[in-house]
Amino acid sequence: MSLPPRTGRPSPEFNRPETDVPPAVTPASTYRLQLRPEFTFGHARAVVPYLASLGVTHLHLSPVLEAVPGSTHGYDVTDHTRVRTELGGEDGLRALAAEARSHGLALVLDIVPNHMALPAPLRLNRPLWEVAREGPGSPYARWFDIDWEAGGGQLLLPVLAEPLDPGSIEVGKAAEAGEAEEAGEPTEAGGGGDRAVLRIGELEFPLREGTAGLEPAALLAAQWYRPACWREARTGLNYRRFFTISELIGVRVEDPEVFAVTHAKVLELVRDGVVEGLRIDHVDGLADPAGYLRRLREAVGADCWVVVEKILAREERLAPGWPVAGTTGYEALYRVDGVLTDPAGAARLDARFRGATGQPRWERTAAAGAREVLTGDLAAELATLERLAGPELALAVRELLIAYPVYRPYPGDPELSPEALERAAAEAGAAPVAGVRELLLREPAFAARFAQTSAALRAKSLEDRAFYRYAPLLSATEVGGDPGAPAVTVAEFHAYCAERERLWPRSGTVLTTHDTKRSADVRARISALSQDPDSVPEPAGADPQLAWVAWQTAFGLGADGSPGERRERLSEALLKAVREAALHTTWTEQDPAYEATVPGYLPAAAPEPSGPLAAAARANLLGAALLHLAVPGVPEVYQGAETEYRALVDPDNRRPAVFPREALARLDAGAAPSGTAEEKLALTAALLRLRRSEPGLFAGYAPLLARGPAAEHCVAFARSAGLVAVATRLSHRLAGAGGWRNTALPLPPGRWRRLALLGPAHGAPEAPYEGEVPLAALLGGASPVAVLLREDADPV
Fold it and tell me: What Cα–Cα distance (Å) separates residue 496 from each residue in 334, 336, 493, 607?
């Protein structure tokens, strides 16, 4: 088949000497690479030529700073001053940047300002080791949100597998003398000049100066920390953490000195031109996101492309004053998935699911999850807020957190919807609720901690609890989604895209990430069920909720991989699902007998769609890919997702990537795509290359509305004056109603020809289109999507 050229006309930003620092560049697209010890900077260098041929302009790297040894994700940072040795170190990163630039590509880094690891061994985190050794007097104490008063003057370290046995405590030399000297352990009198540590089993902790000779009980009491069983974290934790993960301790980057130290290496890489863009992980975890982003923007300059990982509720909008290009794009994911979901069928599935399982409606499920998580997993965080607010306002603090409709408020803006205020007041009283709102305005420290707890609560109770319980349509239970309202109308989709082009045209757009519970192509198959709800079987077995989840999960994955591998992947995903749902078993209170029954709920054979449902799954997959790459924003392709990519929740979605080099080479040589996977690859390459060679085509946004009896089945829009994108929606229903019939799409003025997306086998017509085009001609036959280029505006 014929695809657009690999390079096209070079954009001006790529016509520069290799030694120059890059000027301002908005990526035409990004490609996410998950780095790990098995996939280093060297491995990434090897795929640069392929990724350049695919058409991307920027490589988006997962975190690259020093992390816990063996980490498969890099979000457990241990040292902000060094590039991770296991990935190839700074030399490896700079070599990757040079290789990328030689192919016209640049780098975007994922950075983690909110937290760092509380690792074992503890000395890997030098600042935290110093705090444990020197207490609140340490110059590093300002790095972490530690409530020394709540801990009785000691930092709780919930790192032990069992409650501490004082008889297991030893004082001795560090296991690695060199490491001990580097970490700066104190030399005790009479110790022969050796660095001494407190040892519990294989774990080592620093000794407070002058305490080595004490008896065990006194020795423990004299330290600035208290080693404890991991279970104590739920109620006794006295440091801010990432969500409910006690192994990740929050960092106070709102402190200018902490910001300077933790960002020095990243800023050096930006200044040196190694990096052109930054993704800010979990911006809602910060005390003052707006202040942090202003400081970051001042440090990186106006030219650096910066997006934030920020989960926006359906009616929420990004703060207009933030100096960023936008978000990473979960709100776009919701609209793309939603416009391809049948509202009537989703409602039928909802009713069937609740009838079979007894699960309450979504709003009650979400509220119950929030109450459970706040009073259970986040009990320590709640206790801190209640203590700060005082006993008279404690209940109102709890109820406002539960009622809050979005992830978090921001300093100086503690506004709530009237419905949320009413819900909180009904439980805690109007006067106490008003008192908490006043406290949020009057006390910045309380407001920041309330907001940070709210963000953790929303993430944990929605993404990791309610989404696993409420499963009428699993494709809707995605980060940024709304399982209670999974469908988006065409009008709503157009309104969102037009607003995005007007306000945040450089924002990110994602469909699959390292955090999505199911990849876009798994969700495309599942969402097709909304068009044929009767194809979902009645749940069988003692646990109908699990049976429902198991069948849809197996349907979404389909016959991907060998039967044994597929069953193992499904079993692992289901085990995670039941533990997160916390209906019968949890991560901390496991029920082995129940968990042993989980694999038995999987169907014996992989469920596969047939007939119109199979066509609907394909149309959803290709339609989502087209919309993702054509709507306003900067699309990101997750590693391997340029072709059909079926993945479940992590760690399944972080498996080593498979890059379809050979398939792309065959397509470039003129072969027709073989199957849906290569169709998606052909479509992705065509649009990525077009975005790179002719970025001006992807400016502006104008909805195009079809006319005729099947108009609701068409999603079409124009970008600039030279590009039109068209996708089929709800194709199963369309076929059942008799097809396109005399439905037509009015095109903007000009002569338009089809871009060959899916290959010559689908017979793109020779003659150009003008005026009103019958959709039966444009989207009939085997092509559920189309891109049209105006002849006098397209030089490709």
Answer: 11, 10, 5, 35
Q: What is the pLDDT of residues 565-613, one digit of tens each?
A: 999 999 999 999 999 999 999 999 999 999 999 999 999 999 999 999 9
- State how far the Cα of 394 lies from the Cα of 707, in Å rounded to an integer: 57
The mean of the pLDDT values for the chain is: 92
d(CA 762, CA 153): 72
- Calculate mean pLDDT across residues 436-453: 92
C-alpha–C-alpha distance, residues 242 and 456, integer Å? 7
- Rounded Cα–Cα distance for residues 475 and 486 (Å): 8
The dihedral of CA 317, 322, 325, 328: what is its sign?
negative
Sign of the alpha-carbon dihedral angle for 533, 534, 540, 542: positive
8 Å CB contact between 630 and 725: yes
What is the residue whose two structure tokens read 């989502």?
Answer: 624
Mean pLDDT of 451-478: 96
Quote the CA–CA distance of 561 and 343 in Å, as a whole number.
32
Helix axes 444-458, 379-389, angle to 10 degrees: 150
- Give residue 445's identity as a one-letter amino acid code: A
Alpha helices (H) in 558-610, listed in sequence order: 563-581, 592-597
* Main-chain dihedrals φ then ψ at residue 279, nearest 5 degrees: -105, 125
Longest Cα separation, the chain: 95
Q: How far does Cα 483 stand from its chain's mean position?
A: 17
How many residues does the structure list for the chain? 796
Report the alpha-carbon distance of residue 736 to residue 312 in Å, rounded.
36
Of 779, 781, 733, 786, nearest to 528 by C-alpha is 733
Helix, strand and coil content of the chain, in percent to the nearest 5, comes to: 45, 15, 40
Which ranges constitute the DSSP H helices of 558-694? 563-581, 592-597, 611-630, 661-668, 675-693
Which pLDDT score is estimated for 632? 98
Which run of H or E residues covers position 172?
strand 169-173
From CA 362, how far away is CA 364, in angstroms rounded?
A: 6
pLDDT score, position 348: 98
* String of DSSP letters for 550-571: HHHHHHHH-S-S-HHHHHHHHH
Name which of 569, 560, 725 is nearest 649 in CA terms. 569
- Tokens 């890997």 map to which residue? 124
Strand order across the 203-206 sheet: 169-173, 196-200, 203-206
Three-state SS at 203? strand
Cα separation, 422 vs 2, in Å, equals 60
Q: Which helix (H) or strand (E) holds 468?
A: helix 467-469
Summarised one tens digit per residue, pLDDT across range 385-408 is: 999 999 999 999 999 999 988 898
